[in-house]
Design goal:
The chain is built from 12 helices and 10 strands. It is globular, with a radius of gyration of 25 Å. Helix 3 crosses helix 11 and helix 3 packs antiparallel against helix 12. Strands 1, 2, 3, 4, 5, 6, 7, 8, 9 and 10 form a 10-stranded mixed beta sheet that branches. It has 264 residues and is an alpha/beta fold. Helix 3 links the parallel strand 1 and strand 2. The N and C termini lie far apart (95 Å).
């Protein structure tokens, strides 16, 4: 065989080998997508009840409970939701004992490799410091949290950073315990979400505690799924986007907020 012909043959063989490998990769990729799609739209998935967790005794989670259930109804998914202490909810989802959590901030997914995030948020919260209305030093102390004693609810991610940023931190199990610490002057600030704090104050007709401005932080809230249920991510994401564009999501949220916050 001439050198030119041998070179042409070698190049043709390499091209065929490369094309064959690419086809194998594409075929495997196609099968992966097909299997995921089959699972996603499996009749069993829609027939069975999916178990989700949320955090108990927090107002935004109660709002999320209502909105999340409506999202699932829109998709034809049967779900039940159990509200637990934050750490217990996280452990259950990480261990695969639940399909996911209904509502967590962005950093939750960065620190938990057993879950996947639905990319589009469906609610948001404001981290707010609450103080006694007659605490004249609270305004200045808000900008010097490293000198303040604060209280947070254990396991609630959007307040965990203040464990390092504050002089002393007391962790409790509920908003009620936070407010009790504040009224006993054992802490300077009770740090929780604005909605959660105001819901508790309004419900209990408490007027001697007030939210401080500005808010400490703003956080979008996302649905998280255990990795076993990752195929549900695009389904949730598309539905959230669809409801947002139609304006229906805003209506669902406002109705849920009214239900949780209205005590007339």
């Amino acid at each position: 065989m001439k050198a030119k012909d041998a070179t042409s043959f070698t190049l043709a063989h390499q091209l065929m080998t490369f094309t064959h490998k690419r086809m194998k990769i594409s075929y495997k990729h196609f099968l992966t997508l097909l299997c995921g799609a089959c699972y996603l739209f499996s009749p069993a998935l829609f027939a069975n009840t999916l178990h989700f967790k949320g955090i108990e005794d927090l107002s935004e989670q109660e709002i999320g409970y209502i909105v999340f259930k409506q999202l699932c109804q829109e998709m034809g998914l049967k779900v039940d939701i159990e509200l637990l202490p934050a750490n217990r909810a996280e452990r259950a989802v990480s261990a695969g004992l639940a399909a996911g959590e209904i509502m967590r901030i962005y950093s939750y997914g960065e620190n938990n490799d057993q879950v996947v995030r639905v990319p589009t948020p469906y609610y948001a919260l404001k981290t707010t410091a609450f103080a006694l209305a007659n605490n004249d030093e609270a305004r200045d102390l808000l900008y010097k949290l490293e000198q303040a004693n604060v209280g947070i609810v254990r396991g609630v991610k959007h307040t965990m950073r203040y464990m390092e940023e504050s002089k002393q931190v007391m962790q409790v199990m509920s908003t009620q315990q936070l407010i009790e610490l504040l009224r006993m002057k054992r802490i300077d600030f009770a740090i929780t979400s604005y909605v959660d704090g105001m819901q508790f104050l309004n419900k209990n007709l408490i007027t001697d505690i007030q939210p401080m401005q500005p808010n400490l932080a703003n956080h979008n809230l996302y649905i998280y799924l255990n990795k076993r249920y990752a195929s549900l991510v695009p389904m949730f994401d598309d539905k959230i986007k669809q409801l947002h564009l139609s304006g229906k999501l805003d209506l669902m949220i406002r109705a849920a907020e009214d239900q949780v916050m209205n005590f007339d």
